[in-house]
Amino acid sequence: MDPLPTVLLKPGEADRIVAGHPWIYRGEIFRVTTQPADGELVQVKDHRQRFLGVGFFNARSKINVRLLSSERIEINEKYFEGQIRAALAVRQRQLPSATSFRVVNAESDFLSGLIVDKYEDILVVQISSLGMDKRKALIVAALQKIFSPRAILERGDVASRKFEGLEGVGGILVGELNGPVSVELNGLKFETDLVGGHKTGLYLDQQTNYQAVAQFAKGAQVLDCFSFLGGFGLHAARAGAAHVHLLDQSAEAVAASQRNAAANGLADKCSFGAVNVFDWLKAQTAVQPHEKVIPRFDLIVLDPPSFTRNRASVPDALRGYKEIHLRALKLLKAGGTLATFCCSHHVDATTFQDVILSAAYDTRRILRRVATYSQSPDHPVIPMIPETEYLKGFAFEVVR
Ligand code: SAH
User: What is the atom index within ligand 1 of the atom nearest the CA of 224?
Assistant: First the structure.
């Protein structure tokens, strides 16, 4: 094996790395022996020259090294094949009947900078580190070998590419794809635009939560806020809801969710609104001083986008969360259920619950927590890498 440039850490900076965290920030580096090229493989040692592992170097990023392994390995097609197969095995254990799922979730799978989603026989790759970008051909070759997919797409419109000095990319890398793909989640079909849709096309991280929340839907009047393609709403409809009203401000998303409802034979139970949820909830709960809002839903789902991009925007985000919870609680019948999610990494579960409780206090409602949710297991949480945990949710029953 070729000798590698060595990155020596400052005293005290090795602990997090030994514990399994893959990021080495510029400020943690004491010295670099021979200056590595950006994207090159380096070895990392602590200040006493003890070997810690190997990873990709990039001086342009604040994260100077993204570690891949605590052993001295060669990065070739075989390496990627082994890593991807190991990640796939986790999904096959955790989501044995799923046909669409996230195969590789970057840090969650010790492949910082690489995301691979499987939508039936199509793969979507997102690369957000220079080291991975330079090895795209190896990654694609490994994916072809493992999956023999109909097509492999690249989605590169992620802001994080900029931090690594990478241009935006996108397009078909292998095979052909025309038009939307029909993706199955828990046996329901969702038409998905993999080239232009949100994220890589669908919110795979809610796959298990769709099922879990649907258990509250039997016979219920359901409101699905921020419904996108109808994930929560259509699962609720299938689970026996009396009626589901789905709301999203994107007219395209609403149109797609309408088609999805029809494709699954659920259209007669569903109604839709292409509206701003904040405005809609406000209008529904606006009353004269002597009037009371009449609660009319048995299950309300709140799954908004992340209202935060950074720490600084957290207070505004919390105001937004409080507002929708206040209004949703007014519309929920006693005995009804509020299923609510927060996908911002900057708002932790305790803070999120505090906001909900503060809304409950203001509306004089008492809540019983009946479920806590996290991201689906194809987005594994590695507790030693806090950045891998971002989605949290709760189901609360309205006691009174
Ligand atoms: N529940 C969905 C994911 C929601 S993602 C699922 O499981 O697939 C957030 C959605 O909220 C997006 O579809 C976006 O179009 C919509 N959105 C964002 N801000 C909104 C607002 N103020 N009012 C209504 N919809 C909004």
Answer: 1
pLDDT band for 289, please (50, 70, 90 cuts).
Answer: confident
**Residue 197 pLDDT > 60:** no
| CATH level 3 topology of 186-398 | Rossmann fold (3.40.50)
Q: Verify whether ligand 1 is closer than 6 Å to residue 228 (CB atom).
A: yes
- The tens digit of pLDDT for each residue in 142-178 reads 999 999 999 999 997 667 788 888 888 888 999 999 8
Q: Is 270 a catalytic residue?
A: no
Going across the sheet that includes 392-398, the strands are 270-274, 243-248, 221-225, 297-302, 332-342, 392-398, 367-374
Residue entry with tokens 């659920």: 266
One of 2.60.120.260, 1.10.10.10, 3.10.100.10, 2.30.130.10 is the CATH number of 6-69, namely 2.30.130.10
Q: Which of these CATH numbers, 3.40.50.300, 3.80.30.20, 3.30.750.80, 1.10.287.3510, describes 77-178?
A: 3.30.750.80
* Dist. CA 280 → ligand 1 center (Å): 13
According to DSSP, residue 51 is labeled E
Ligand 1 centroid to residue 296 C-alpha, Å: 22
Nearest CA-CA partner of 374 in 351, 393, 347 = 393
Ligand 1 mean position, distance from CA 218 (Å): 24
Q: Tell if the pTM clears 0.85, that is, is over it.
A: yes
Residue range 43-82, pLDDT digits in tens: 999 999 999 999 999 999 999 999 999 999 999 999 999 9
- 277 CB less than 6 Å from ligand 1? yes
Percent of the chain whose predicted confidence (pLDDT) is above 70: 98
